[in-house]
Amino acid sequence: MAVGEDLRENLQRAIKLIRDATANNSSLIVLPECFNSPYGTKHFPKYAEPIPNGETSKTLSEEAKANKVFLVAGSIPEREGNKFYNTTTVWSPSGELLAKHRKIHLFDIDIPGGVRFKESDCLSAGKDLTTFNISNLKIGVGICYDLRFSELSKIYRKQGVDMLLYPGAFNMTTGPLHWELLLRARAVDEQVFVAGVSPARDTTADYVAWGHSMVVDPWGKILQQADSQEETVIVDLDLAEIDNVRKQIPVYYQRREDLYDTIEVKSKM
Questions:
Q1: The Cα angle at residue 77 between residues 194 and 6, in degrees rounded to 5
Q2: What is the pLDDT of residue 117?
Q3: Segments of the chain scoring below 50 in pLDDT
Q4: Cα separation, 106 vs 201, whole angstroms
Q5: Which of 48, 90, 151, 259 is positioned for an S-S bond with 77, CB 3.0–4.6 A?
Q6: What is the DSSP string of 209-257?
Q7: How would you classify the pairing of strands 28-30 and 76-80?
Q8: From the CB of residue 151, how many other CB atoms can be counted at a distance below 10 Å?
Q9: Which residues have a catalytic role annotated?
Q10: Which CA distances in Å does 99 have to 70, 129, 209?
């Protein structure tokens, strides 16, 4: 999705894309990271809204209900009190807020000659893992930099997820190097479907996204991939492939938990 500086124009564009995808019989629709605002710490406070009472949340609820789809709304800058978060919302076909995921790992990096960015200058980190169900399909959610942390995806696998969704805006340095690599690695490691959903590339923006939204199957095969510009990727998932790969390569059950393990630590709010 192409994202500009006008919030209402961004929402109207999202509405159009949601309706277009619905017209193609989509039952689950995923928007990119920061789909209602430019990506950047200077932008987050200006565009931040409360959830679920902000304009963006109300629009998403209405569209999910009107189109009778599950809607994973990429992410938006969320305001709660005096704190800001990078937050994904998940809406049911009845317009109900099913889940909310606050980005756990903040994007603080400094690559000489590449990119320097520090989300923690503005944002607070989330403290909870997020899953939701569509019938018998269990889905785990991460945002962008969360993709780099294999411990998170391993916990999701232990919780029984069948698919991982990562709305994300990798940049022109890390995107060509790691976007596809990490999405395919998460799919192979956890034997799940994985989708990475990016904003379109805007070379006039302060932060330029790599794009290349894609869906990967549990074998690590790319099922569909967008280019750098606005494009809707539509994929039919053969859920039988989850069991196929897990039966043929049963690594999950062959882990040596007598020697190592990955555990979830419950947050204390």
A1: 105
A2: 80
A3: none
A4: 21
A5: 48
A6: B----EEE-TTS-EEEE--SSS--------THHHHHHHHHS-GGGG--T
A7: unpaired
A8: 10
A9: 33, 103, 144
A10: 11, 10, 26
